[in-house]
Amino acid sequence: MTFDLGTMLGAPMNNNVQVQQIPVDMLEPYHNHKFQLYTGERLDDMVDSIQKNGVLNPIIVQPIASGRYEILIGHNRWNASKLAGKPVVPAIIKTGLSEEEAEMYVIESNLMQRGFDNLRISEQAAVLAMRHKEMFSQGKRNDIIRELQLLENPQLAAEDEADKKHQTTSDKVGAEYGMSRNSVARLLRIDTLHDTIKEWVDAGLSIRAGVELSYINPDGQELLVEYMQRCTVPETDTNFSVIRKLITEKAAKTLREAFQNGLITEPDDIPIVLEKPVKTATKPLKIDSAIAQRYFTKGESQKEISATIEKALELYFSQQSESQEEECELDGYGLSDELLKLLKKNGKKNIDDVREWMLCGNGEDTLSPELWDEVYVLLDE
User: Fold this and answer.
1) Nearest to 144 by CA among 166, 162, 126
2) Is the pTM of this model over 0.85?
3) What letter would DSSP give residue 278?
């Protein structure tokens, strides 16, 4: 298969290439399209251009079932044509493509048009995954032979370091895009994530956290998405700020281990795992001798001293708790005594605490319908 993407993306058309006018409602996006469509001013400019001049360069499609066509190149032109009110789009029909060949048209065309550095993280991951697979298929026999040679003669490793002639597939892909082998490896893991989790990464979830989540099996990732969607309001939290705050790299590692150990079998297990305190060894506590002499007699046993200290600490922390309740910001919002008491009991001291509590669904089984209404009134203020 010869891929003449230069021609397909706008170079002068070959006279042997047949262009057909295909109704816009007979076209569908590529089934595994990984790239974001134009929005805002860039989309408006394309719509305006198509309204005035039509689609100058044909899109590329392949036939699918029921007489319809799947777009390989030209998703933005198709979308803009619909917005411009155009009934048909000029297209070149490619037949007999394998799945790998079709995907190459989709990915390589986006890479040529936009450049690697301008792609989102998930889009970069898709490009690297394709190139890695392509290079691996081409060079896997040589890599295996070289690996066997190194096992027989470790001295060859020093020669490899000196002449750089023998590189792994990840090394080669990284060199092509100016990335380290480790960066390539991380993005290859990102490409295996659930599509929704990829959106979190594109919005700012750390790549290392995404890598940890990638080791969760697909069913587990689906459970995670289901739970986290309860923790955000898509209409207002378009950048997944709540999710990014909850899933740190450490939390992602905890989730990975919990899924692998069978501790999470349904969405409601997730907050239990995330909120469970980490067990740490307790260091022995020593009391200064001057303090011990001031408050304890020589005849008191270790057990009696420990009991006295425990009572003193209980009294201290109870007074601290009462003091904190007195300083609670929620006192000034005219809440019912029942709701105020419940919020304080759950450690909610201000509006932000309450909002996060509600977004994550932690109060769902605690609040009566009347208290739910009162909370929403509070959050609307």
Assistant:
1) 166
2) no
3) P
